[in-house]
């Protein structure tokens, strides 16, 4: 979150009447009498780009009076998008990550969508935690286009060599890791950042964020995260990517430098294409304190409240997040469909690799918690890493991070 929030809020306060009247503005036509709407998002890999282009083409065939101009913002997506929104030249429809949704909803730049939804759109078909991430006070501001949860990826060959079973609880996970150490095998590849361990931080009854403030220095959160520090520093059963000359958790696992990682659906197509001979399996994340949990990362299509082409914009959102459009977009499994019926139709719910990740959607913690989570995340990550590396004890590190985060948040209150 940056100072643009304050400027944008002031702008909206002055121009509120104009914004509320936008829904009645006549649709503006482009060439050949078509309505041209701008869809903005970040780039993807070649297969994802091809899938999105195909979905847009299918939409245009069904809606010949609408032309979609697809804009790809390759760097600093949110900064550029926010600047354009402030300047009054934002896209009609755009991607919005759940992490950024609360802050943008608060500014009023997103068009509320409840009034556009008809019964045939089947809102109940969406996975509830993912849809809730784009709702506030009963109003929906975006419909999630796809998601990934985290799951346990394990190397079957290394598991067989160590003579261990796939752990179902965190206690079992720690014991299995110790067996791997005795066998001279690196057990767990961990990415020490809040986005990957948020659900663990709250597993002990604590709250990472409370009343929109950082709250992660509490005893409950510290106690929940201490095992991660102990695994790395005391048990020596976990490594981060840089410890083994890797760039990411995906890289560690693909190169068989670790037996286990907790990663997302993005690993599956990557491993299939780049490491087709790697024999691996997936499972739900081990339970903590007897409870299932994981992280979910999701992105929605949202509408610019200042758009002059709202009717056409809704037609696009409705198609892209509808059953037909979502099936095309997610058909290759790079992202998972947020509609349960589409996941079932594509066979992902029963898929050997994707099934455990699909199951996680129903109980996942969405990577989102109020408008200031980006600030909280940055401060947490800096200090948690120092504790992970043994440069500070965890409690001291998190107290320092919490104090700094809340000082920064106070500027915007």
TrEMBL record:
Lineage per the UniProt record: Bacteria, Bacillati, Bacillota, Bacilli, Bacillales
Any single biological process term in GO: maltose transport
Organism for this UniProt entry: Priestia megaterium (strain ATCC 12872 / QMB1551) (Bacillus megaterium)
Domain of life per record: Bacteria
Family from the record: Belongs to the bacterial solute-binding protein 1 family.
Keyword match Transmembrane: no
Protein name per Swiss-Prot or TrEMBL: ABC transporter, substrate-binding protein
Coiled coil: none
GO MF, any single term: maltose binding
